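Why should sequence recovery work at all? Because a backbone constrains its sequence more than one might expect. Tight turns favour small or flexible residues, buried strands favour hydrophobic ones, and helices have their own preferences. The token representation captures these environments compactly. In the example below, the structure is given first.
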């Protein structure tokens, strides 16, 4: 409480008369202030406990610096008084200096008395004259046994109680706050709650821009956003899955029950042992260090658009990347947090007249995921525009890898083999000016809308296309094998695009796994395609182990 009370001194304008600086003098001389300045305490449940003394003081006592504090009449009716309360009434008539006398500190200007209030603002003399006519008012103050009744102490108690009342309101507003024991922890909780709300606004504004006539055909993007927003909301409002929280330093791990299905575009996956959202690099480093210290394996995910999670969950810590800053460092040059939505970046760059990420407008992952996978479509790929990538390693150090070190290939990057990498934290892009970027983006998005099942729960293409130079795509092979519509449980090969396996009816991870295996097997028997040539793009995350891609 002490920590906050200093910070909250600025809330004091309602108690300026208690100050001992020069401004106090002016306020004390202002008869209007005596009641009005304190009036808003009257409804505040001034005392936390039933008070024991009732002190009634004429408001002019202020002027004579009595050891009682003038308070509004209404205060005398606060709360139910304790039966054991001792009542004491001090009633003094208005005596001593007249208000007119004491207020003559004002400056005469043009025959009128001009006064200044504590903020140095002018106040007309006639206001004072009105106040002078006010009848003497008796005010009552109550104090508990043993509590000081001097005006400083009473007013200080009033100030603290007022702050407490506001804090209690905050506690009611912010879920989980009641749990917090210390003021610092509570304020931290409030800060992170407000930040979460800000992030929600971010998501919603992204949704709004998607609803723009140009973008609203990107249904898949909306779907993913909806899922993420839903998960976020669930966290904010503290649903049953988010009650168990492990804290360390600034970290807040949600333990045991966060459902991976809520974090994946497939909507499949059981609970993970630990879950944390990270918002900046240092936060991420702390989370990684904490996990390493406790030998907990980690998995950094973005939008979960490329992962097949196990129904049994994940025996480790899922770190959801929400490092989502964007810096414009020059014309067409962007440095972007790895948790930034890739589709949003693509849309922004095109809108700003730069070419290179038009394809990204329809890609549901994050910037980090796009660098990791070298995401691509429509003849473009992330590698074309990436200048460098900042990562943190498992020992918590920061490294910047330049373009020449990134070893990009078709859906490949050096990161997929980098054992000491903890996560990508930021990516620098360089794009070229273009007047037709938006037009191209519109064409690509329109094409995807027609050829891909964007409304369904999927992870995009499941199989890699055969080696470059091959005249046939994975989708074509699957279609020609007659596998469109093939089902295992709730998992199905899309009727629209054969390389999309969709969760159409509560698919389990097992259903999806079996469907993937079945497709591979049929391609092998019917087309004679060696299974190693139809590798998977999606990452299979089993309960205990992360594979580079399912089945590999
Ligand atoms: N063209 C299309 O239509 C589609 C493309 N995609 C692409 O799939 C990718 C998925 O992105 P996203 O949904 O964000 O990723 P996911 O959340 O699905 O994560 C998938 C894997 O990517 C790696 N990864 C993600 N973010 C980071 C990071 N910041 N640092 C290091 N590794 C990271 C992790 O691998 P690890 O565990 O090894 O660290 C993670 O397991 C994107 O490239 C997306 O463009 C997805 C669907 C459709
Ligand atoms: C969806 C993804 O990316 C997509 C990306 O959106 C598109 C658009 O450029 O190009 C790739 O798909 P793709 O190779 O299947 O491209 P498409 O243009 O859809 O299809 C290629 C060929 O297959 C044929 N085709 C496609 C679907 C189908 O059901 N049947 C079929 O015969 C098409 O007629 C076309 O001749 C990426 N997939 C891979 C594995 O590289 C992803 O990475 O998850």
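From this structural description, the recovered sequence reads:
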């Amino acid at each position: 409480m002490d920590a906050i009370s200093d910070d909250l001194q600025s809330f004091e304008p309602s108690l300026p008369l208690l100050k001992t600086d020069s401004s106090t003098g002016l306020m004390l001389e202002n008869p209007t202030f005596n009641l009005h300045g304190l009036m808003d305490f009257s409804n505040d449940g001034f005392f936390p406990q039933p008070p024991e003394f009732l002190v009634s003081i004429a408001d002019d006592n202020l002027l004579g610096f009595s050891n009682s504090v003038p308070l509004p009449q209404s205060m005398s009716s606060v709360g139910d008084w304790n039966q054991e309360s001792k009542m004491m009434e001090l009633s003094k008539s208005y005596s001593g200096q007249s208000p007119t006398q004491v207020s003559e500190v004002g400056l005469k200007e043009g025959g009128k008395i001009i006064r200044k209030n504590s903020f140095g603002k002018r106040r007309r003399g006639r206001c004072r004259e009105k106040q002078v006519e006010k009848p003497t008012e008796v005010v009552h103050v109550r104090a508990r046994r043993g509590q000081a009744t001097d005006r400083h102490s009473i007013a200080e108690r009033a100030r603290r109680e007022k702050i407490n009342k506001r804090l209690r309101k905050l506690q009611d507003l912010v879920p989980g706050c009641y749990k917090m024991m210390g003021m610092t922890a509570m304020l931290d909780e409030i800060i992170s709650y407000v930040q979460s709300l800000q992030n929600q606004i971010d998501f919603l504004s992204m949704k709004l821009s998607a609803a723009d006539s140009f973008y609203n055909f990107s249904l898949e993007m909306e779907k993913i956003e909806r899922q993420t927003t839903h998960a976020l909301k669930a966290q904010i409002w503290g649903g049953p899955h988010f009650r168990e929280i492990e804290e360390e330093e600034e970290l807040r791990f949600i333990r045991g029950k966060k459902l991976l299905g809520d974090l994946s575009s497939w909507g499949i996956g059981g609970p993970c042992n630990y879950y944390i959202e990270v918002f900046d690099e240092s936060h991420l480093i702390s989370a990684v260090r904490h996990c390493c210290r406790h030998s907990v394996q980690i998995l950094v995910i973005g939008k979960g658009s490329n992962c097949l999670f196990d129904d049994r969950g994940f025996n480790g810590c899922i770190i959801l990347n929400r490092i989502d800053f964007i810096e414009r460092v020059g014309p067409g040059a962007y440095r972007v947090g790895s948790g930034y939505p890739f589709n949003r970046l693509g849309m922004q760059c095109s809108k700003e007249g730069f070419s290179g990420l038009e394809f990204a407008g329809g890609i549901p992952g994050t910037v980090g995921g796009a660098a990791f996978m070298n995401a691509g479509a429509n003849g473009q790929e992330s590698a074309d525009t990436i200048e460098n990538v900042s990562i943190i390693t498992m020992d918590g150090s920061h490294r910047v890898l330049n373009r020449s070190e990134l070893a990009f290939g078709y859906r490949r990057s050096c990161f997929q083999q980098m054992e000491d990498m903890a996560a990508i934290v930021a990516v620098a892009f360089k794009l070229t000016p273009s007047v037709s970027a938006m037009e191209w983006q519109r064409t690509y998005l329109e094409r995807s809308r027609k050829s891909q099942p964007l409304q369904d729960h999927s992870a995009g293409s499941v199989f890699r296309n055969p080696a470059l130079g091959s005249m046939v795509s994975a989708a074509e092979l699957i279609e020609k094998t007659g596998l469109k519509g093939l089902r295992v449980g709730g998992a199905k090969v899309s009727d629209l695009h054969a390389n999309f396996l969709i969760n159409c009816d509560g698919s389990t991870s097992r259903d999806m796994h079996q469907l993937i295996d079945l497709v591979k097997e049929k391609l092998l028997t019917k087309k004679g395609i060696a299974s190693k040539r139809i590798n998977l793009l999606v990452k299979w995350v089993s309960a205990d182990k992360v594979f580079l891609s399912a089945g590999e």
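A few observations help interpret the result. The chain is about 30% helix and 20% strand.
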